[in-house]
Amino acid sequence: MKKIALLLSAALIALTACDPMEEIVNEPITTKFVEKITNAVDGSVISLSYDSDMRVTGVTKTNPTDSSQDRHYEVKYNLDMTTNTVTFDIISGEDKFVMEFNEYGALKEFVRDGATREVLSTFVYNNYTSVSAFHLELKGMVDNLTGGEAKRIDWSYGTPVNQINQIDRVIENEKYTYSTSIQYEYLAYCSNVRANVNFFNLLTPEFLEYSNIPTELAATVSVFGSRSSYLPTDVTLTKGRSEAGENYVKLTEETREFSYELDERGYISKIFTGKEESKNKKLLYTIEYANVKQK
How far is CA 219 from CA 59, 110, 134, 153, 252, in A? Predict the structure, then answer.
């Protein structure tokens, strides 16, 4: 029964976490449920639907200028009381995918469930117990289609701070290792746990680059063990490659800056590229929440 309780609380209930800002308002923070996310750059919209327990049952992404990029995902939740396992079925058109979880409710495998079962990616975690709670932190994943890996993810105080993604490629009979180094900085404490959507994955899709999970799905069907407590203000991506037996060569470096507009309760209403004081600050996402009376 203890295992079932863990699974239910971690995998079937909307993710929430302790937030230091809670002390400021002197009352518990309740989860707000996102209804719509509008991308100000390309006009695309992510819409969510829910069941009576406020679990995400549908995710739709539409693009006003290119309908070929439209996607819809139907989400079904399964609890097997005999084996104490939880899975999420993801239906998209004629395709069916399955999220399979470990005994703690953290994503273990992402599977394509067709004529044959194909494991698309696998995930591993660090775990530890603090004074207040049990924690899991995603430390790596493997893309079984390409062989790409998140070789390591370092966390600090509930946030990823460093990450190394890596993939091997053969070019003209020579083997190269391509890598992406990602540094995340948090110069302002903007909570990523007050809404049910994981905004982190929208801003830094490289975090789950080798998961084979579409970005809009990874953000809206958030799972225990892979969610940052806060959103980054600065992200630096350094890409390079090394030939077998040769030195590393840096190819590119990219820096992203983010700032956030919050309502009076600390919930995110807008996300911007650029710092708060920057002349280059531009709207990236607008967030609309469902009008739901908390139980």
Answer: 10, 15, 23, 18, 26
